[in-house]
Here is the input.
Amino acid sequence: MWKARLQIDRNTGQGFERASVNLPITQGVTLRTGRDGFAIVQLEDGSSLRLTPGTIATFTELRLRDSGAKDSVANLQQGMAYVSYMGTKNDEFALTFGPQTLKLEKAAHVRLEVARTQAAVAVLKGDVRVDSPSGVAEVGKKQTATFDLAANGPYSLAKNVGDNPYDDWDKQQEQYDQRYAKNSSFTGSPYSYGSNDLNYYGSFFNVAGYGTMWQPFFTGAGWNPYMDGSWAFYPGAGYGWASAYPWGWLPYHSGSWMFLPSYGWAWQPGGTWMGLSNAPNVINPPRGFQTPLVPTTPSRSLIAVGRGGTPVAMGAGTANRLVINNNSAGLGIPRGSIRNLSGMSQQAGQRGSVAAKVQPQAVNPVMYRTMQQTPNPGAAPAPRSAGSSPSRSNGPSPSAGTRSSAPSYSPPANSGGYTPMPSAPSSAGRNSGGTGRK
Here is the structure.
């Protein structure tokens, strides 16, 4: 068994390397989890593939049809994965294992376990079809189909689903997605994946002259959104920024980061979608701020950037107690493990840190999102959506081979209504937002 918690082969010729959160999953990428490694890959429609320890999965196909529908195929070589599939119209998702193909065309929740000579498909919700050399297996809710991988013989069907030690973890992740997606400000957007993390790790608010903004909890005057992350090089696309923060997907692939007096750094949604070459997009930075520079020399290895972001620490004497420092911006907080992050953020801002209890056996999985490859790589980016502000970019445009479009937005919960997002004022002094948000 490999020792690293999680490794990734980005299909760049580098082979396996220690994984970094928020790296885009493109066609040909392989993930493998170690003894205590957990990973979640979220598809563009919000569907999720959850990998438990000791699992190897390769994304053999991530294709975007001319119609806009998405075909996604992952091969589970060994281990166990859970799939929560949304059943988006015209999209298709499949899991292959040995000579079998598990096809998902409707909403379903499935557990797939692959051992050396045997595989088991357990359907928790919905119903699925498995194509195998011995025929088609129709597996309904609360049924388990077991396949002999060595003999490629007939499958057996049991009218029950046995318990598994990782079922509770899977259930917690599914409940998290359902709970925080309900308040999503991105309903109907083709790029809504990652918005549930914004609803948990921060909050939306309105600022006069700027419109709707978002800010993570546990940030103060010493924090900036590019303190921690890594540069990843993709042949044909160049370098892209992968944020180290657990919420760090959507705010780094669309919109702009702004520094607002009395508020600090905040993210403004809007603009065009940035694919693999998502260089930092910053407006009105404070004096002395240095935007991370895109490396000039191609490198197959990830280039880590760490400027002092402070993750949470385990409290003394108990495994279920965390000490959360201000300016940690959520680093190290497992998804959904702590209630009332907003209130704790206020306390950390006043005291410098705050102690919090987490749910028993809380696990912090490494998050990824897929990027479909388009059959017409020379296509131009889609126009910006109405009501969104053009974002200045000091980096390259979305690369050929990645999908490019503008997200659409609906009113965030608690915002009191949606305000169209104008371009940032030419002078930061025009902000009349009042006292800072805590």
